[in-house]
Amino acid sequence: MSLPWLRESWRQVVSDYQQQRFGHAHCIPAREGLGAEAYTQALAHYLLCLQPTQRACGRCKSCLLVQSETHPDYYVLRSEDNRAIGVDKIRELTQALQQTASQHGAKVAWIKNAERMTTEAANALLKTLEEPTANTYIILSPERTSALLPTIRSRMRLHTLNEPSWPEIEAWLVQQLGRSLTPEEQLRSQQFLGAPLHALAALKGEVSDNIDYVGRLAQACCVDSKWPLPTKSDWAGWLDASEAWLHELIRIKQRVAQQRLRFPGSYQLAVDWLQREQITVAEINAWLALCYNLRKTTSEQAGLNVPLLLQQQWLQWKHKP
Ligand SMILES: [Zn+2]
């Protein structure tokens, strides 16, 4: 799938690589609906390719190994079941990265959910970031870059992916669907600014969970207090949505232009509620801190009743101290 809003970033990356100005440590924040995952994957393949031009060639031995998911110098690490990435996994990785590449090309490590590394794990990685072996690339994809240790952040190049404007998104959607959008579809799609892939999924009827979650939270928060009942299998989605909703409330409080909001469908509900309850930005930030804290605790401790903890947090949104 072609993602035109990422083309400029890609051109820059290729140009830096060709001019040997491409460092070895990179941070590409995870942005699900923006295509960051596909972008990062393409970059990893590009770095591994033995004869890249503007992208991975797809034909060399290295590319074929990537395609069959058996490339011995390509390491992908992620948090499993929202748990922490422990020091053992990182040590295993850094030891592997010290070996000579078995395909005579580059070695690439891609750490997803990178903010879930424990402090010990992050410190173990730090040494490799400081003294990299030749032709080794490390890419971190955190969901929140601010949650990485500052010592880690400062040693990486931060990639900021361009967010398309609404006209760009609309043109892309029209191209993908092969038809124009109805006025109702336009309105619906505008809820997905910053997440065109979610807009496309919604138009195709593959409803994005995240957006549905936010809509339900908005309704409960501002209207009827009918809070959802998160389960063991979907609490992570509710936690994401909680953070997304609180960020949206802050944007509204800061009078960000309506077309830059992520959930304009809930705008009026939010404005009325914020006014009625006289909610301050400080309060919203305090609720956000609780969400971050919950996310951190769940990645470090097993056996927590996260659905219950989430519900307790939501109840606080209504009750001012
Ligand atoms: Zn290749």
From TrEMBL:
Enzyme's top EC category: transferase
Transmembrane stretches, start-end: none
Annotated GO biological process: DNA-templated DNA replication
GO cellular component annotations of the record: DNA polymerase III complex
E.C. number(s) listed in UniProt: 2.7.7.7
Source superkingdom: Bacteria
Keywords, in A-Z order: DNA-directed DNA polymerase, Nucleotidyltransferase, Transferase
UniProt keyword Hydrolase present: no
InterPro entries in the record: DNA_Rep/Repair_Clamp_Loader, P-loop_NTPase
Catalytic activity entry: DNA(n) + a 2'-deoxyribonucleoside 5'-triphosphate = DNA(n+1) + diphosphate
Record keyword Kinase present: no
Protein name: DNA-directed DNA polymerase
GO molecular function, one term: DNA-directed DNA polymerase activity
Pfam families: DNA_pol3_delta2
